UniProtKB/TrEMBL annotation:
Its cofactor is Mn(2+); Co(2+); Cd(2+). Its EC number is 2.5.1.54. One of its GO terms (cellular component) is chloroplast. NCBIfam families: DAHP_synth_II. This is Phospho-2-dehydro-3-deoxyheptonate aldolase. Pathway: Metabolic intermediate biosynthesis; chorismate biosynthesis; chorismate from D-erythrose 4-phosphate and phosphoenolpyruvate: step 1/7. GO terms for molecular function: 3-deoxy-7-phosphoheptulonate synthase activity. InterPro entries: Aldolase_TIM (IPR013785), DAHP_synth_2 (IPR002480). Pfam families: DAHP_synth_2 (PF01474). Phosphoenolpyruvate binds at residues 302, 461-462, 484, 515. Binds 1 divalent cation per subunit. The enzyme is active with manganese, cobalt or cadmium ions. It comes from Setaria italica (Foxtail millet). Belongs to the class-II DAHP synthase family.
Length: 657
């Protein structure tokens, strides 16, 4: 008779997978439990510690009999088994599954298993049979008999309340599920989240909405919104799902997110050359990070929709004249006149048209040959030809060229789409809710709702209230979401917010964007990381070193010191090294233009230089040279991180971090 299986809590398993350094698995112990005959309805995940160095970086594999993606139900304890011999570390699979917080295992002395296989039931109508709960002392200790615990299903809301008949990727018919005689099901945790109520595209209207303009004519507003509802989507649901998968890789430390673009797009500066230059500097930064850091780069632009801006004050006063604050070109104008500052619904139609045109050009650049690696030497901007960063980039580009030449000589093709195109996604702050609602569509493939104004949306520091309208809207759309977090964020509130927006704990769904300043980062970020880890939640951590470092220059202009930005980036990496978590990316306000808005950098922009080319409509941005300099520094830090982990690394880059 076979010995029963050992179980481990979802919380602990989530830590093992999301934070490999949280526990060190032994490299020699192999349990004697035989592999189960009927593991699961959809797929099998395997962690093989014997094939990995210590500390363990989990290896995840997928059964060849379960080729399609799956979304199991949240919560509970997970059964762990050694994998069948056919399930070696082939077919690497990124964990896309819902690992939800749960109670610790009843016996805290359970040892980690050397080989872990997680059997998961699917998100179907069929109920699972039982979960065997067994203590697991040392290998020499006797095991107690199995105890069977009845399962309960938790009601799933928000994005997971879609019609199962439309959700081909995650649902299985009840008959098919019950035909699999699997006793390795998932138990639902006792603690249930607070009921959120039924979500609809306009349920946010029942909540308190901050930072929304007051339009003078409700009739005109309604007419404009009805018009936008008839427009085609700006982006497609499948593209957003692909981005979510890539962000999940960054959460596991297998990719690095580069998110950048204008503080606020404007109608006045809408020009193909400006779009090209920003895209080009993002390509350059991506090349530096990929070649220098030897890590895949997920490129996300603050473009094609980043118009609306939150304001600390509803009104602005100059020389005794008080007018509504400028809230972005899709709301009102920046000229300080009464006519310009009146919110105009027609601006939303113009913002839509500009977003579509911008994305159309970006798609052409990304897939039409401009982004081909063979052109890496041609991406340098003219004004950087004789600069230090331009020279460093030119040196790196020649090394990439040599590598491509070697590949060609070895008979490897460099004409594959992976070498001639690039993936590029768009993002913006979800602020102007009427506009976002008008562009929300139900996906015919999955039955889920997507905000088709951008691939990724984020909720800002001023609008992330747990009971607010913006959180209510975002919990129901299936796009990957960002959460801007300052030093004011309470760790418990962050956990609650993540659970509201991602009740199934799906990797890639939530990206935490920290914006604190260097000193606050070192003090506050560790507590946030620990709270999220202890809750068993999987998120992607990226840093926004811009917003916490804004100062006022003697001339009265807002600026950001490059040294302060760099200090916050260093603090971000240092804290994640300290906590054993993954620094997943960087979020920048930047431009490909040769502006003088942030002081410092290798070309040393001074306070006196600010007025030369200060063009921003909102906050100061890094120019192309400063952006590239920061990319070289981050690439060096990523390279050193890979060296410490024992992974393959690239040749050293100039300038240590």
């Amino acid at each position: 008779m076979h010995k029963p299986s050992t179980i481990v809590s979802g919380q602990r398993l989530g830590r093992l997978i999301a934070e490999p350094n949280a526990e060190n698995l032994p490299s020699t112990h192999t349990p004697t439990v035989p592999p189960p005959q009927a593991i699961c309805d959809r797929a099998l995940l395997v962690i093989d510690a014997n094939s990995l160095p210590n500390p363990v970086a989990p290896t995840l594999s997928k059964s060849p009999n379960c080729p399609s993606p799956f979304v199991p139900p949240p919560g509970g304890n997970y059964h762990l088994h050694p994998p069948p011999s056919s399930l070696t570390a082939t077919n690497p699979l990124l964990l896309r599954d819902a690992l939800h917080r749960t109670t610790p295992p009843p016996n805290p002395t359970y040892p980690p298993l050397a080989r872990l296989a997680m059997a998961l039931a699917t998100n179907s109508a069929a109920t699972a049979a039982a979960a065997a709960a067994v203590s697991g002392g040392a290998a020499s200790q006797p095991r107690r008999a199995a105890a069977f615990v009845p399962l309960k299903r938790r009601t799933i809301s928000a994005i997971h309340a879609a019609d199962p008949s439309k959700n081909n990727g995650s649902a299985v018919p009840a008959a098919a599920a019950s035909s699999k005689a699997s006793s390795f099901a998932v138990a639902t945790p006792e603690k249930k989240p607070a009921a959120q109520g039924k979500w609809t595209v306009d349920s946010w209207k029942s909540k308190k909405a901050l930072q929304l303009p007051e339009y003078p004519s409700q009739e005109e507003l309604d007419s404009v919104l009805k018009t936008i509802e008839t427009f085609p989507p700006v982006v497609f649901a499948g593209e957003a799902r692909h981005l979510e998968e890539r962000l999940a890789e960054a959460a596991m430390g297998r990719a690095f997110v580069l998110q950048g673009g204008d503080c606020a797009e404007s109608f006045k500066e809408f020009h193909a050359n400006n779009i090209r230059d920003t895209f080009r500097i993002l390509l350059q930064m991506g090349a530096v990070l990929m070649f220098g850091g030897q890590v895949p780069v997920v490129k996300v632009g603050r473009m094609a929709g980043q118009f609306a801006k939150p304001r600390s004050e509803a009104f602005e006063e100059r020389d005794g004249v008080k007018l509504p604050s400028y809230r972005g070109d899709n709301v009102n104008g920046d000229d300080f006149t009464e006519k310009s500052r009146v919110p105009d619904p027609q601006r939303m139609i113009r913002a839509y048209a500009q977003s579509v045109a911008t994305l159309n050009l970006l798609r052409a650049f990304a897939t039409g040959g401009y982004a081909a690696m063979q052109r890496v030497t041609q991406w340098n901007l003219d004004f950087m030809d004789h600069s230090e960063q331009g020279d460093r980039y030119r040196e790196l580009a020649h090394r990439v060229d040599e590598a491509l030449g070697f590949m060609t000589a070895a008979g490897l093709t460099v004409d594959h789409p992976i070498m001639t195109t690039t993936d590029f996604w768009t993002s913006h702050e979800c602020l102007l809710l009427p506009y976002e609602q008008a562009l929300t569509r139900e996906d015919s493939t999955s039955g889920l709702f997507y905000d088709c104004s951008a691939h990724m949306l984020w909720v800002g520091e001023r609008t992330r209230q747990l009971d607010g309208a913006h959180v209510e809207f975002l919990r129901g759309v299936a796009n990957p979401l960002g959460i801007k977090v300052s030093d004011k964020m309470n760790p418990s509130d962050l956990v609650k917010l993540i659970e509201i927006l991602n009740p199934s704990n799906k990797p890639g769904r939530i990206t935490i964007i920290t914006r604190m300043g260097a000193e606050n980062m070192r003090v506050k970020l560790p507590h946030l990381i620990r709270a999220v880890r202890n809750a068993g939640l999987i998120v992607t951590w990226i840093t926004d070193p811009m917003h916490g470092n804004t100062i006022k220059a003697p001339c009265g202009l807002k600026t950001r010191p490059f040294d302060s930005i760099l200090a916050e980036v260093r603090a971000f990496f240092d804290v994640h090294d300290q906590e054993g978590s993954h620094p997943g990316g960087i979020h920048l306000e930047m431009t490909g233009q040769n502006v003088t808005e942030c002081i410092g950098g290798s070309r040393t922009v001074t306070f006196d230089d600010l007025s030369d080319r200060y063009h921003t409509h909102c906050d100061p941005r890094l120019n192309a040279s400063q952006s590239l300099e920061l990319a070289f520094i981050i690439a060096e830090r990523l390279r050193k991180r890979r060296m410490r982990s024992g992974l393959n690394n690239s040749l050293p880059l100039p300038l240590a971090f």
